[in-house]
């Protein structure tokens, strides 16, 4: 199954033929992408309700975290900006913003959930293929800044301190949703499972008889087959890149991934793959490494616990690769 930045290749031929678990899979559209779930269960009676519960959890999160749905909890909060008092928040919205803020502080704003005004502007730019006037870009940037969000743990609530703020959780929400759906499956005793939100993955125990889930990492060009594979279990895997979403203006290629500090799309043609302890962290880190760039991004990823990352990028017409020292260990496992 090809997905925009990763090729998921689940091979079960080596599994014990006597194993009682069977492989099931389902897909549904959520959060603007296709979510795909693979799980191993004794029979359909166990598998089908589990699929329903997992997809329902993703649907619930979309109603809370979407920046497209005008009635989502996130957008209803943004409509109040600047808030006159702390606004009650669901556990999910609060947790995603708490984790986003932690990444924002650690990266000095290179990851920023308040980037919504710039995201909206660049969606329009990709349609018109015309750069905005500098004043328009400056106006959008004025409403961006993670310090404009204030979180209160008790009682759980959120304040937005700047006018015209728009939160955009696209750099973490799909990974968080994949984690949440995987947790639902685990609660039902289905630990051999994988949840894929179009390249943002949360993986549990591997397929029976296997050491891990075999993940093919897509190369820089979207239609080329993968030449590298990982083998992973009980972690998150994510990718970030501009193979599918970009715009060329006056000979410059701008990614859909934005640098919050400049307000512009990245111009380095790259694909980033991250393995992290969970899907939400992998999702955020893939964006962070992209914004930092190959050298500084890999240096940042190397400092993170239980994290591996690789960047494939184009430099002066040549494809180059940068990776954390332990990234090759994951590839070695996949080639056993």
From TrEMBL:
Catalytic reaction annotation: L-threonyl-[protein] + FAD = FMN-L-threonyl-[protein] + AMP + H(+)
Pfam families membership: ApbE
Record's keyword annotation contains Magnesium: yes
Gene3D superfamilies, alphabetized: ApbE-like domains (3.10.520.10)
Cited InterPro entries: ApbE, ApbE-like_sf
Recorded superkingdom: Bacteria
UniProt EC number: 2.7.1.180
Keyword vocabulary terms for this entry: FAD, Flavoprotein, Lipoprotein, Magnesium, Metal-binding, Transferase
Coiled-coil ranges (or none): none
GO molecular function terms listed in the Swiss-Prot or TrEMBL record: metal ion binding; transferase activity
SUPFAM superfamilies: ApbE-like (SSF143631)
Membrane-crossing segments per the record: none
Cofactor: Mg(2+); Mn(2+)
Group of enzyme by EC: transferase
PANTHER family named among the record's database cross-references: FAD:PROTEIN FMN TRANSFERASE, THIAMINE BIOSYNTHESIS LIPOPROTEIN APBE
Protein name (record): FAD:protein FMN transferase
Organism (species): Lignipirellula cremea
Lineage: Bacteria, Pseudomonadati, Planctomycetota, Planctomycetia, Pirellulales
